[in-house]
Structures are given as structure tokens and as C-alpha cells.
Amino acid sequence: MAAAAGALRRLVRCGPQQGLGRLLQPRSGIHGSAPAAVQVTVRDALNQALDEELERDEKVFLLGEEVAQYDGAYKISRGLWKKYGDKRIIDTPISEMGFTGIAVGAAMAGLRPICEFMTFNFSMQAIDQVINSAGKTLYMSAGMVPVPVVFRGPNGASAGVGAQHSQCFAAWYGHCPGLKVVSPWSSEDAKGLLKASVRDDNPVVMLENELMYGVPFEMSEEAQSKDFLVPIGKAKIERQGTHVTLVSHSRSVGHCLEAAAVLVKEGVECEVVNLRTIRPMDVESIEASVVKTNHLITVEGGWPQFGVGAEICARIMEGPAFNYLDAPAVRLTGADVPMPYAKVLEENCLPQVKDIIFAVKKTLNI
Amino acid sequence: MRKMLLAALSRVLQGPAAAARPVSRVVVASRNYADFTSEATFDIKKCDLHRLEEGPPVTAVLTREEGLHYYRTMQTIRRMELKSDQLYKQKIIRGFCHLYDGQEACCVGLEAAIKPTDHLITAYRAHGYAYTRGTSVREILAELTGRKGGCAKGKGGSMHMYAQNFYGGNGIVGAQVPLGAGIALACKYFGKDEICLTLYGDGAANQGQIFETYNMAALWKLPCIFICENNRYGMGTSVERAAASTDYYKRGDYIPGIRVDGMDILCVREATKFAAEHCRSGKGPMLMELQTYRYHGHSMSDPGISYRTREEIQEVRSKSDPITLLKDRMVNNSLSSVEELKEIDVEVRKEIEEAAQFATTDPEPPLEELGNHIYKNEPPFEVRGPSQWIKYKSVG
Questions:
Q1: Is A210 tagged catalytic?
Q2: A216: helix, coil or strand?
Q3: Where is the secretion signal located (chain B) (predicted)?
Q4: pTM, to two decimals
């Protein structure tokens, strides 16, 4: 019975990201209540989160390029300008350093801005405002000046957009004390983390992923509620396993689950940990998993050197889980090159499902 | 009764010369306040205008109370900065220390024209503003000496002092300008008729982010006064060597601007009142260039004489010192007397000495403070020290 329930849970978690769009309503048959789970794309989940938080608190507003009248470059803010108007949804000129500073100043003066970067690549032009103005001010002022701002937008590789539009900034922002950095994978992650970020009194960098925007996920009734929050700083076990721990964030979580689905046929049970938050990182959850499985593989889209995986490996070395490792920890990352354009090259610059499977077998020596 | 006793004492102390003194002197010495005028009107320099039909008035009324207050405030800042110079040379203040002496008329004049509910942000030459925005000399000096009694508990230092409606103290040249426009956006958003004074120097004036900010402030009609404190040198580079156009008040292009004599506190005050009115009426931003001068070098590590002559510094001191200008105006127009102002000097010196005493004896912050103020409103958590075995507790 427990095994069947477990299988059903895995089915619920694993299903939608393969893009089959199956409508799963596990509750109706089992619990006898009305079906409440629905399929929601990451885009719609973000849109709902923005709408709900704008409605909930008048101090919340959104600014960025094309967020208002264009409905958002990636349509995340669709319909919001029509509903909330010029005061709450502000189109900016192409002036990242300027409008990011404006967002940070507005936060210092008591508003709760959401500053959208069309992609995080452009945040590099404004990175001084994010780190030096937003990240450090609470500390420098000994608590006098909080900066409740959210920086959000697509991060990392897209499809065929070339080197200057494909960089992952998780390690860059994750490096800096004073910031919080979150990285959603599913719709539930996206909605809950965005809402939590807006309500957080600290500067939060939310790294979304353009390729995930159109992917539907099941969202439980609980996840659909206006007060559904995903706690910042807590990882989620997307799939229970016993043989190896796969730790990942953002789009790579889906690849880990795909790899797990293939490996299960060979009797290998992967535990898939969805970090959800890069900083502060939930190392305890990773440690607990490694203690159980004795094997660790990190998977990310960012470059290898000084990356998220490198940090996880270092932290595991320092903690109790080190003694439980039966093999060195392994990192799967983006290739150590700027992102090329040609499809075959680009594909091979990111960890694919086959790479994860290979790494699992290598680390388990099978 | 007290006045009569003082008068008598004064005559006794003056000795035989007392009889030879002109009557007015004796009257002043007796501290009879009825003999001071309550206010006087002064001609002030006409401001150069950019995209404006009319500018600030060319006369200003100064009341005795105002004059005494401005004098005391400027003198306090002057002595506080000189004390900081002393403490720095004794190595009691470390790191960066950018002093404001010479520029006092700017911060005091600005503050005289706005309300405490208005907002202000500036760069790193900020000690004067920390004071005018409400931080005590004690807390400023203790912050410079890195003690727990400092206004930022010793965690900020010279460039990072904050107060109510005063957002620092910012170390990155020019970064404070978009921040200031953001604060102005909040002023407009909240609709409470508040404005933001956003300051930067002649060096920062060439930063790209400032032009991005001009654009958005004008587009969105933000209630922001952009204020360029032009002290002629960006570190060691004179304005002629740094800017293709040194008409900083025109650099906002479509933003109306005024060029102001920054050494004359009344000029600064009237210009700021004019600009504040413009912003509060919803017309959008304005730009003010305050022509001022710093006696010290860029910072304490700059002697300040490799790129300018001692003669130039001396000339400004003798002809344009803001405190002397105010003093002369007041004394020559019976708003005060040399003696009265000297008394203020004595009081100020005492205040600075006491503050310095505090700043040099207050303990440094406890080590536990190292981890605090990473996040606001967060349950306590652990912060890593230099090794995995060293941890600090962090509370917001």
C-alpha cells in the first residue's frame, strides 16, 4: 500500500515536466473531495504571484523594460498594466544602471519594488546597484536602512541566443552576503518563491529560466491560494531515493528527474533535491540526503569554476556528510566556454540527461 | 540684573580702556540684545539660469536667530572636520576620510531651505550632511573612530552614515544619484509633498548613470533636485581636464538648472527654496550647481597641493570663506557681535572636544556584532567566519 502511494507520489511529481500535459487529479478518487489541482505554466504562476502581491500591498510595484504596455518581454506581466496602471507598472528606458538604482532607492524610502531584468545578462550593467547599494546597505547602516527589493528575470541559457545572452548568474549573486538568491524550477516554486521574495524585507535576486516559462506543472489547491508561500532557504526533495543524491536548481531539476526515471529501470533510485534557494543554501537537506545515499552529484547550467556545485562540494567536505561519501562528489555544469550558437554545440554545452545518467553510473561504479 | 552685572564686570575687566571705548562697543559688551537688529536684508549673487525665465531672488532676509543658527552649525561642522583631520593623523581614524571644510555653506544652506521630512542623499564627503540631517557630532566622530557608539555602530565608517531621511554616505561615485531619484519616486508615489535632494560632485557629474537618471527623472517628473557640488577638483583632476562642458548646471540638458554661489549660505538657501518649490509643484526635477571649495585634499591621503597651488587655497580662505562671510554680514549689520560669535566658537570647541573624548574612549563594537544586520526581520542564523569552525550569530 505504501509502495503504491509512493509510486503515485512520484508519478504526481514526475509527470508534467515531460511536456505531456497529462491532467492528474489524484485527490478526487482517493480522498473523495472535489478535484482542485490544475495545470499551470511557470509563466502563469509568476503572473498570478505578481497580480496577488500587487493587489495585497499598495507599496508593491513593478518596473523594467517592456513590463507595462508590451505586457512583458516574456509576457510574465501580461494584463497587469491594464489592471494596475502607470503608477504600479512602469516601463523604463533601456537604462539598467539607472532604473536599478531607482528601484533600490525606492525600496530604501519605503516602497517594495520588483525590478525586472529582461535577462540577467543585462543586470551586469547594474550589478553595482544590486550588490553595493542593495546588498550591503543594511549591514553598513547597522540595521537602519532595509532594502526590500526583488530583482527578477530569466537567467542562464536559453535556445540559440548566443554567448552574451546565456550566462548563469547564480554563482555571481550567490557569492554576496546581504542578498538572498532564489532559483525556481516548477510553477509552484515560481509562484511561492516570488510571493515570498516580495514579502521578504531583504533584497532578493530571483533567477528564472526562459525555457521553463511555457512548461506546465500541476499546482495543488494549496499552491493556488493567495497566501501560498515557498520558504526561502529551504530545498525540496522532488524524488525520494536511496542510491545517489542529485542536487540541482532551475531547469536542471527536470533533467535530473528524467535521468532518475531512466535509471529506475536499472534498479537505481535517485534522490533528487531541488535547491530552490541558492543563498542561503539549505546545506542540511543536502547533507541529510548524502548521509542516506552516500553519493553526491550536483547538476547546474552555470560554468564550473567557482560555481554552485563547487560550493556544495566544499560544504559537504566540511560537514558530517563527508564521512558518509562512498565516492568523491561529482559536479555536472555548463561547459567551460562561452555559449556557442549552433544547436549541436549549444546542446553539448549544458548537462544533458545522458550526462547525468553517465555520471550516476560512474559514481556508483556500475 | 545679570546683564547689568555682566556689564559691570566687563567694564572692570576692560580696565582703563573702557572709558575710551565708543558707546556702541560698551552697549554690545553689555550683551543687551535689544541693540541687535532682528533681521537684515542682503544682496546675493544672481544665479546663472538654464532653461528658466526667472531664477531665485537676488536678495535674502536673514533673521538674527537664523544667522546664529547657521553660524553655529557651520562652525560645528568646520571644527568637527578639523578634529577628524587631527584624529586621522593620530591614526585613530583609519581608511578613507573625506573632509568637508570649506563647503559648509552648502549643507547648511540646503538644510535651511527644506524640511526634516524631505529626503537627502549624497556621496562620501558626507560628515556635514550627517550632522545637518540630525546625527550628533559624538555619533559621527565615534563612527569615524569605529566605536560601538558610532551612528552605524562602527560598521559603516566615514562613508556610510545614515539618519532619518538621510540615505548616506555612499562610496561608489555616482551610484547615489539613481538612488536619489528612486527616493524621489517614492515621494511622488506616497503623495506626501516631499522631495529628495540628490547630491554628487563635479567628478561624478561625468558618470553615465547620472544621465540615465536625468532622463527618467524628467520623463516621470520626479520631485528630485539634482545638486552638483562643484569644488573644482575630482580627486586630483581639475574640472577643465575632466569635462568637455564644465557648465554643470546645464548638463541636465532638458532639466532646468541654476548655478549658485556655494560659498554664500544665503545664496544656497534661496536657490534651494526656489528649486524645492519647482519640484513640489509637480514640474519635475531641477538641477543646481553649487560652486564651492574644499580646503583639504580629496581625502586624508591627498595633501591637496599637487594639482592646485597653496595660493589658490589661501585666496579662497581669505576672500570666500563661508563662515567668515556670514560672520561679517552679521557683525556689520548688527545681527550679532564679534564677542557673541566668539562665545559660540568657544561652545562649539567644547562640544567637539567632548565628542572627541567620547569617540576615543568608547569601546569598539563587540565581536558578536560582526555577524549582525545581514538580513532584516529574519530569525537568528549563523554566519561563517574565516573558517568553518568560526561562526557568528546573525540578528537583523
A1: no
A2: strand
A3: 1-19
A4: 0.91
